Amino acid sequence: MIPFQEQRFEGATLPADLVWEALPDDCWRLRSPGFEMNSGLIVGTRSSLLVDTGSGPREAAAIHRAVRRITDTHLIIANTHAHGDHFLGNDYFRAQGVTDFYAGTLAIEHMEQTESQQRELVASIEPEMAAGEGECTRLHIPEHRVGSAPVRINLGDKFVTLQQLGNAHSPGDISVHTGRVLFAGDVIEQGGPPNFEDSIPLRWVAVLDELVTGEALDTVYVPGHGGTVDRDFVLHQRDQIREAITTCRKIAAVQKPGSEPTDHELRVLPFGPVESRNLYQRVHAT
Ligand SMILES: [Zn+2]
Fold first, then answer.
1. How far is the C-alpha of 193 from the C-alpha of 189, rounded, in Å?
2. Distance from the CA of 83 to the center of ligand 1, in angstroms?
3. What spacing in Å lies between the alpha carbon of 188 and ligand 1's midpoint?
4. Of 147, 174, 213, 280, which sits 20 to 30 A from 165 (CA to CA)?
5. For 250-271, how does the pLDDT look when each residue is reduced to its tens digit (9 = 90+)?
6. What gap in Å lies between CA 107 and CA 67, rounded to an integer?
7. How far is the CA of 170 from the centre of ligand 1 (A)?
8. Which CATH number does the domain 20-231 belong to among 3.30.2310.20, 1.10.10.10, 3.20.20.140, 3.60.15.10?
9. CA-based Rg of the chain, rounded to a whole angstrom?
10. What is the pLDDT of residues 127-159, one digit of tens each?
């Protein structure tokens, strides 16, 4: 069991207490206010698994407090991917005694290679993490790697399966699956456009296809941001990205060599100016 005490941060404004949404099969969803990022919790009789730890020690402290309102079992952590809003809270949980952290092999490499970018991403809500100054602001890299083979974790009365999906939204995205519930990280986005900056768009389409074809019809999908969705939503997102890739290729075909399309030309894409341009650039870079 992990000690119940929490560290406090001098002068830090911690988010207000967070509220869990109950899901099937002893699973829970928690939205942190900063990036509206979803953490997940799968509660077992012996251990529980937390999916994603927030942007730094401020959010992680609130997430930890919320976890301990649900369960006092031994805690295991999985990071869905290598973007700072999902894993920079790891060091706080390490300080609370958590010793088992999991992430995709490629995500771990990306965490190490892009540390400064990930810290910069969270600067507005986690200034200590951005600066690397203060308690629990070290980069805590998961020591358990999820490679090409799925990893099964025994929580006592249930198993959780971690699976590396490849580079869809970002290098080394993993899914976390138990019973009817699948935590998908940012491979599924609800309430906002998908983020294409580190993506391989074609692979993303294939991954979304895999996430529905092998799953039960009543699977509950938990996106990295936004509310839970069903299979039809995932299929719609797959089709939307696939059609957008085709549109990007048509736009590229009428560009002069070396020139970029205007925002006006990209307006036919359904993702807004920033993500439409990100998608266009990733379609041609990958
Ligand atoms: Zn992300």
1. 7
2. 5
3. 10
4. 280
5. 999 999 888 899 999 999 999 9
6. 24
7. 7
8. 3.60.15.10
9. 19
10. 999 999 999 999 999 999 999 999 999 999 999
